[in-house]
Amino acid sequence: MAAEDMKTYDVIIVGGGPAGLSAALYASRSKLSTLVLEKAKPGGQAGTTEWLENYPGFPGGVKGPELMEHFAAQAREFGAEIIKDDVASVDFSGEKKLVCTAGGGQYSASAVILCPGAEPRTLGLPGERELRGKGVSYCATCDGDFFTDLDIVVIGNGDAAVEEAMYLTRFAESVTMIVVHDEGILDATAVIRDRAFKNPKMKWVWNSVVDEIRGDGIVESVIIRNLKTNERTELETNGVFVFVGTVPNTQFLSGAVEMDKRGYIIANEQMETSVDGVYCAGDARVKYLRQVITAAADGAIAAVAAEKYIHEEEGFREMVLAPASPVMVCFWSPTSQESLDFMPAVERIAEARAGSLNLVKIDIYKNQRIAGRYEISAAPSILFFNKGQVCERVQWPTTEEELTLVADRVISGK
Amino acid sequence: MVQVDKVNFEEEVLQAKGPVLVDFWSTKCEPCMALLPDVEALEAKYGDQIKFCKLNVLENRRLAISQKVLGLPTICIYKDGEKVAELTKDDATAANIEAMIKEQIQ
Ligand SMILES: Cc1cc2nc3c(=O)[nH]c(=O)nc-3n(C[C@H](O)[C@H](O)[C@H](O)COP(=O)(O)OP(=O)(O)OC[C@H]3O[C@@H](n4cnc5c(N)ncnc54)[C@H](O)[C@@H]3O)c2cc1C
Ligand 1 center to residue A115 CA distance, Å? Predict the structure, then answer.
């Protein structure tokens, strides 16, 4: 591919939900050129949630789409660019990370933050796929209106399922929840459960699952099976809403970063994935709580970590890898007395050879990634670089005399 | 795009000569709002070969259900009063819609 077709940024963010937009705000505000690639409308799952009651700062709640528009506007305010396209593949093998889109776009960046979030899990029931958009739905705000004065069934009983069911009672004549548990037991938290039990439009079928969704062109009924008696009954309904959790949108990565068995990306406290310079934030990550506030927090952390990474790598490239003359790198640590004691000797050697040998000092505690890349585990350690390559390595213990000999050997190029 | 509703659907869509694309949408449907610019871009490209209409389901719910549309976004193509092709939900992407149009205008 021709180099001019490739657009280059400091940071590319995949996904413009709460995590991606927060990362974009932090990255662009710290003056990094920032691109968000979002396949749909910015806002993610939160953008299709009618009402958020638990995002701090909004007593009485806030509309999901409205909050997400603010997220996007604030990111744009600091210069983040948001492009509508679907990321189809990535290549993280080189120093520059490459991202390709379904629309044919080719982008490269020093760091990538993955925020693809999650999408509703489907059940794979007979009729489910065929009747999608024909009465089977996974999004109450998208489709709720259709069911004004009609009867619907909701599958699932967690917080999101019960809240969405309650939202649907604004339109529907009745909302019947099919619950696997014994009577009165829901996975939803107590506050939400109690509110739902008081809602006269909510009906409950306990100890049961839906086996099949039936209908000719549009949903007409569901087959419900009682788990205790194994009895199957047909219930007439106009719609079936499925809220049974989510699956991460990570297939496009084809295993480019480490994931768990279910496809969630593994990242540490700094949101670093298994690949240097690649970060993950939000619902797509292995984590304890998947909410807007934790997605936003992840995004902020990932952007700050990415910024630090970019500056460290840039600094290292400029100071150590790029210079035409040899560079002596002294890896030190404030906690290693030997490295502090030996530093004056290192400085004397460099000063005496100013112009033909540059000295760079690297704190191995603050720059663990770079230290790790050159397999430096103890301080002091001294590496000599010539035109980007390591040409000599001096391990501790050493002496000023030995280091002098090595330095002169590197300079003479023998 | 031609705005269609329960009053003019028969005339503008079912009685029309040649293929007609109908975008079923609503102001409350975020994915529909995201898709709309793409559909408009397709109209600029194919508008001379196929008629583009949009139907806001909020005021025309019964009409939508009569067309067996119960979820958004849904994009249908009609010919001679019959629905001949349809894309809904995740399948209703710009690329898929363009492919569907091409197939129907040959
Ligand atoms: C029904 C429901 C109700 C909820 N209610 C609440 C609530 O009341 N309070 C709360 O705090 N949380 C709530 N949540 C959870 C909250 O919405 C999520 O935790 C949050 O949206 C996660 O943000 P995210 O940015 O990680 O991912 P998402 O919001 O999933 O955003 C990911 C974005 O990435 C895009 N994307 C994915 N793959 C690609 C790709 N390959 N290329 C380009 N773009 C891509 C998607 O289009 C999407 O816009 C609810 C969730 C649901 C489903």
Answer: 9
